[in-house]
Structure prediction request, 550 residues.
Amino acid sequence: MLSKLSIKNFALIDDVCVEFTSGLTSITGETGAGKSIILGALSLVLGKRADLNSIRNNTLKCIIEAEFILDKSQFLILFNEFELDFDVHTIIRRELLPSGKSRAFVNDTPVTLSQLQLLSNYLLDIHSQHETLSLFSETYQLEILDVLAGNLVLLKSYSEKLQDYKEVSETILALVYKKESASKELDYNTFLYDELVEANLKNVQQNELEETFSKLNNTETIQETLTAVNSLLNEEQYGALNTLKETRSLLVKLNAVSLDFQNLYERLNSIIIEMDDISEEMINLSSSIEADPSLLNEINEKLQTIYKLQQKHNVATVSELLEIQNILEEKIEITNNLDGEIDKLEIYKGKLKNKVKDLANKIHKKRIIVIPTLKDKLTSILNELGMPNAAFKFELTSTTIFKKNGTDSLLLLFTANKGHNFGPLNKVASGGELSRIMLSIKAVIAQYKKLPTAIFDEIDSGISGEIAYKMAEILKEMSLTMQMFAITHLPQLAAVGNQHIKIFKEDVNQITETKLKTLTKEERVSEIAEMIGGKNKSISAINQAKELLN
Prediction:
């Protein structure tokens, strides 16, 4: 239950703190006194988006604290899931800073707004004046059925499988698009790849090919040059080698004269040995090089192929061409494998679709089962609220469309009078009838959905007389199993509260402030008498107020 609420620097409130009891708390006040401010503060502390205009003094921070007394057996697991420290006296604090930032804490542990909103779903249900409009929503109508049917676990599984189904569907669409785009390039990539494969570039050494081609292409020049050089070296009379050898023969005579001559001799001898070797190698090279037009043509064709491919792909080496070949091979393989991948995902998608349909069918069947129970409970309560001929018709049909809450389509029809046709709520129900229908729904849901606290903001709209007494009885009965707050203008509702809080405005230092006051028994008599007869409370109004309270 909500045990305490503290509000500082919010809207017309400077600083108020009020404690609440269990059972039913009646909240009254004149129109414009600030009842909506209290709901606004509670909404903020439970995760609603902040509005800086709500700060009363924009140089100070706004602080709203709500203290709840929680059942450990009911909330410990939930707090552990949210990774929060559990305390029987749990304090939720929301701070709005002048800078525009907002902070939230649960038992002094910082939390995000999304965490706060999830937690608040288990703490408090606020029925605002505008929530009655949700009766017209198919989503809300299905939620009512699901509460009675106990579909929470099934809906969670359905939602998870539906998300998986949507993700796989999106992946398939992306792959199909990728395949269509890749298919346009497949023929061209295949042509380029086949061209590179046909060139057979693996283990090809371009430098060696070019060198061999150069030799074969210049065979005659090489042989003629080597022969001429060899002739110059070895000509009998004027050959360079013969001349050097004669020179060496002359120098040998001076070896014994001086070490300098011996060094000259050795250097000359080294030259002769090197030139002998060069001469022999040229002879060998000359004899090894033979004209081979066929091989020359083959190497030329290979090199021309390489050069064309290098020019086409704008590269300079064979290794780069081989790298491009590998890339093209991967692209072709990926494109060819897309069909297989898409087929596998389509099979998986089909299985997921069957699981989603199966869960949706189970949800549908459980909804069908509880419709008679819901109709009986609603008509029974509405009978107490002065609508003995009220009747509902639930037209629940299963569709092929996967919605976030199943595949059902629901048309809720209503009639308040015997012998009249059924019609949509928004067309056949008056404002007062809608208020009573909403209260009936809340009363039924309270039996199934174990919320600790519920707040009704003017659920009595359009209600008066004997019906107001019946409504008060229903709220009182609901408060036996849960904490209830009723913001009301009806004295009948105000009188049945275990606690009565008045909201009013007061000028403090020429500044209007909203105040809260927990009324004593005598003050309740005065407040209810004023609700009955206005500011000038008559004796009969006072007596009627006492009678209501008793």
Observations:
- The first helix runs from residue 35 to 45.
- The mean pLDDT is 86.
- DSSP finds 17 helices and 15 strands in the chain.
